[in-house]
Amino acid sequence: ESVLVVRDGKLLTEDQRLHPGDEVKVVAVISGG
Question: Global pTM?
Answer without folding.
Answer: 0.69
